[in-house]
Amino acid sequence: MRMLFNAFSVALTVYSLLCFVRIMLTWFGGSVSYSPLARVLSQACDPYLDLFRGIPFLRVGYLDFSPLVALAALSALSSVCGSIAATGALSVGTILALALRMCWSVVSSILSFLILMLAVRLVADLVAPNSTFQLWATLDRLLWTPVSAILRAVSPRRSLSRRAGLGIALGVLILLNYSLGWVMRGIAALLSQLPF
After folding, report:
1. What's this model's pTM, rounded to 2 decimal places?
2. What residues contact residue 7 under an 8 Å CB cut-off, 6+ apart?
3. What SS3 state is found at 59?
Protein backbone atom coordinates (compact mmCIF):
# COMPACT_ATOMS: atom_id res chain seq x y z
CA MET A 1 0.00 0.00 0.00
CA ARG A 2 2.85 2.39 0.84
CA MET A 3 4.46 1.78 -2.55
CA LEU A 4 1.19 2.67 -4.29
CA PHE A 5 0.89 5.99 -2.44
CA ASN A 6 4.57 6.73 -3.03
CA ALA A 7 4.14 6.09 -6.78
CA PHE A 8 1.04 8.29 -6.82
CA SER A 9 2.96 11.05 -5.01
CA VAL A 10 5.78 10.87 -7.59
CA ALA A 11 3.27 10.89 -10.47
CA LEU A 12 1.58 14.00 -9.05
CA THR A 13 4.94 15.71 -8.68
CA VAL A 14 5.83 14.93 -12.32
CA TYR A 15 2.41 16.13 -13.47
CA SER A 16 2.92 19.35 -11.47
CA LEU A 17 6.19 19.91 -13.29
CA LEU A 18 4.49 19.36 -16.65
CA CYS A 19 1.75 21.83 -15.71
CA PHE A 20 4.39 24.35 -14.62
CA VAL A 21 6.17 24.03 -17.98
CA ARG A 22 2.80 24.43 -19.76
CA ILE A 23 2.07 27.59 -17.78
CA MET A 24 5.50 29.02 -18.58
CA LEU A 25 5.06 28.28 -22.30
CA THR A 26 1.84 30.32 -22.35
CA TRP A 27 3.87 33.39 -21.44
CA PHE A 28 5.74 33.20 -24.74
CA GLY A 29 3.96 33.94 -27.95
CA GLY A 30 4.70 32.88 -31.47
CA SER A 31 6.19 29.57 -32.45
CA VAL A 32 6.95 28.46 -28.87
CA SER A 33 3.24 28.42 -27.99
CA TYR A 34 2.46 26.27 -31.05
CA SER A 35 5.40 23.89 -30.93
CA PRO A 36 4.77 20.12 -30.77
CA LEU A 37 5.83 20.09 -27.11
CA ALA A 38 3.37 22.90 -26.30
CA ARG A 39 0.53 21.03 -28.04
CA VAL A 40 1.25 17.80 -26.13
CA LEU A 41 1.47 19.68 -22.84
CA SER A 42 -1.73 21.55 -23.68
CA GLN A 43 -3.61 18.29 -24.22
CA ALA A 44 -2.24 16.82 -20.99
CA CYS A 45 -2.50 19.84 -18.69
CA ASP A 46 -5.20 22.22 -19.94
CA PRO A 47 -8.19 20.07 -18.87
CA TYR A 48 -6.89 20.16 -15.29
CA LEU A 49 -5.85 23.84 -15.38
CA ASP A 50 -9.23 24.81 -16.89
CA LEU A 51 -10.97 23.54 -13.74
CA PHE A 52 -9.45 26.49 -11.87
CA ARG A 53 -9.69 29.17 -14.59
CA GLY A 54 -13.41 29.64 -14.08
CA ILE A 55 -13.15 30.56 -10.40
CA PRO A 56 -13.83 34.32 -10.31
CA PHE A 57 -12.02 35.30 -7.10
CA LEU A 58 -8.75 33.94 -8.50
CA ARG A 59 -8.60 36.94 -10.84
CA VAL A 60 -7.49 40.24 -9.36
CA GLY A 61 -7.43 42.96 -11.99
CA TYR A 62 -5.10 41.76 -14.75
CA LEU A 63 -3.63 39.01 -12.58
CA ASP A 64 -4.85 35.41 -12.87
CA PHE A 65 -3.86 33.28 -9.89
CA SER A 66 -5.71 30.14 -11.02
CA PRO A 67 -2.53 28.38 -12.28
CA LEU A 68 -0.94 28.96 -8.89
CA VAL A 69 -3.91 27.44 -7.07
CA ALA A 70 -3.96 24.50 -9.50
CA LEU A 71 -0.28 23.79 -8.79
CA ALA A 72 -0.87 24.17 -5.05
CA ALA A 73 -3.69 21.61 -5.18
CA LEU A 74 -1.40 19.13 -6.94
CA SER A 75 1.30 19.81 -4.37
CA ALA A 76 -1.14 19.21 -1.52
CA LEU A 77 -2.32 15.91 -3.00
CA SER A 78 1.28 14.86 -3.51
CA SER A 79 2.05 15.74 0.13
CA VAL A 80 -0.92 13.73 1.40
CA CYS A 81 0.15 10.72 -0.64
CA GLY A 82 3.76 11.14 0.48
CA SER A 83 2.67 11.36 4.10
CA ILE A 84 0.63 8.18 3.80
CA ALA A 85 3.55 6.46 2.06
CA ALA A 86 5.96 7.53 4.82
CA THR A 87 3.80 6.71 7.86
CA GLY A 88 1.34 4.16 6.58
CA ALA A 89 -1.54 6.21 7.98
CA LEU A 90 -2.96 9.68 7.89
CA SER A 91 -4.43 11.49 10.89
CA VAL A 92 -6.95 14.31 10.94
CA GLY A 93 -4.26 16.58 12.38
CA THR A 94 -1.92 15.79 9.49
CA ILE A 95 -4.68 16.48 6.96
CA LEU A 96 -5.47 19.81 8.66
CA ALA A 97 -1.77 20.73 8.74
CA LEU A 98 -1.40 19.87 5.04
CA ALA A 99 -4.51 21.88 4.14
CA LEU A 100 -3.19 24.85 6.09
CA ARG A 101 0.22 24.54 4.42
CA MET A 102 -1.42 24.36 1.00
CA CYS A 103 -3.55 27.45 1.62
CA TRP A 104 -0.56 29.32 3.00
CA SER A 105 1.56 28.22 0.04
CA VAL A 106 -0.93 29.84 -2.34
CA VAL A 107 -1.17 33.04 -0.30
CA SER A 108 2.60 33.20 0.18
CA SER A 109 3.19 32.70 -3.54
CA ILE A 110 0.82 35.55 -4.36
CA LEU A 111 2.52 37.78 -1.79
CA SER A 112 5.97 36.82 -3.11
CA PHE A 113 4.89 37.61 -6.66
CA LEU A 114 3.58 41.01 -5.57
CA ILE A 115 6.79 41.66 -3.60
CA LEU A 116 8.88 40.86 -6.67
CA MET A 117 6.78 43.09 -8.93
CA LEU A 118 6.87 45.95 -6.41
CA ALA A 119 10.65 45.61 -6.04
CA VAL A 120 11.13 45.68 -9.83
CA ARG A 121 8.88 48.71 -10.15
CA LEU A 122 10.58 50.55 -7.28
CA VAL A 123 14.07 49.90 -8.71
CA ALA A 124 12.87 51.10 -12.12
CA ASP A 125 11.47 54.25 -10.53
CA LEU A 126 14.77 54.87 -8.73
CA VAL A 127 16.89 54.29 -11.85
CA ALA A 128 14.71 56.10 -14.39
CA PRO A 129 12.00 58.09 -12.60
CA ASN A 130 10.53 59.69 -15.71
CA SER A 131 10.63 56.65 -17.98
CA THR A 132 7.66 56.13 -20.27
CA PHE A 133 8.53 52.49 -20.98
CA GLN A 134 5.30 50.56 -21.60
CA LEU A 135 6.23 47.77 -19.16
CA TRP A 136 6.24 50.24 -16.26
CA ALA A 137 2.78 51.51 -17.17
CA THR A 138 1.54 47.92 -17.31
CA LEU A 139 3.11 47.14 -13.93
CA ASP A 140 1.53 50.28 -12.47
CA ARG A 141 -1.90 49.09 -13.64
CA LEU A 142 -1.31 45.60 -12.22
CA LEU A 143 -0.06 46.88 -8.88
CA TRP A 144 -2.51 49.74 -8.42
CA THR A 145 -5.20 47.73 -6.58
CA PRO A 146 -2.95 46.08 -3.96
CA VAL A 147 -0.79 49.18 -3.46
CA SER A 148 -3.76 51.49 -3.00
CA ALA A 149 -5.39 49.05 -0.55
CA ILE A 150 -2.19 48.88 1.50
CA LEU A 151 -1.76 52.65 1.48
CA ARG A 152 -5.39 53.20 2.54
CA ALA A 153 -4.81 50.85 5.48
CA VAL A 154 -1.43 52.32 6.48
CA SER A 155 -1.88 56.00 5.69
CA PRO A 156 -5.54 56.76 4.89
CA ARG A 157 -5.35 60.56 4.92
CA ARG A 158 -1.85 61.28 3.67
CA SER A 159 -0.95 61.72 0.04
CA LEU A 160 2.31 60.00 -0.88
CA SER A 161 4.58 60.04 -3.88
CA ARG A 162 4.61 56.99 -6.12
CA ARG A 163 8.08 56.03 -4.89
CA ALA A 164 7.07 56.33 -1.22
CA GLY A 165 3.88 54.38 -1.87
CA LEU A 166 5.79 51.60 -3.61
CA GLY A 167 8.33 51.46 -0.78
CA ILE A 168 5.68 51.35 1.94
CA ALA A 169 3.65 48.68 0.11
CA LEU A 170 6.82 46.63 -0.45
CA GLY A 171 7.78 46.83 3.23
CA VAL A 172 4.27 45.93 4.42
CA LEU A 173 4.08 42.91 2.10
CA ILE A 174 7.52 41.63 3.13
CA LEU A 175 6.62 41.98 6.81
CA LEU A 176 3.23 40.34 6.24
CA ASN A 177 4.70 37.44 4.26
CA TYR A 178 7.36 36.56 6.82
CA SER A 179 5.29 37.11 9.96
CA LEU A 180 2.29 35.16 8.66
CA GLY A 181 4.64 32.42 7.43
CA TRP A 182 6.07 32.05 10.91
CA VAL A 183 2.58 31.89 12.44
CA MET A 184 1.33 29.38 9.84
CA ARG A 185 4.32 27.07 10.36
CA GLY A 186 3.67 27.10 14.11
CA ILE A 187 -0.02 26.32 13.70
CA ALA A 188 0.72 23.55 11.18
CA ALA A 189 3.23 21.99 13.59
CA LEU A 190 0.63 22.02 16.36
CA LEU A 191 -2.03 20.53 14.09
CA SER A 192 0.25 17.73 12.91
CA GLN A 193 0.77 16.66 16.54
CA LEU A 194 -2.93 16.11 17.19
CA PRO A 195 -3.43 12.52 18.40
CA PHE A 196 -6.37 11.74 16.11
Report:
1. 0.67
2. none
3. strand
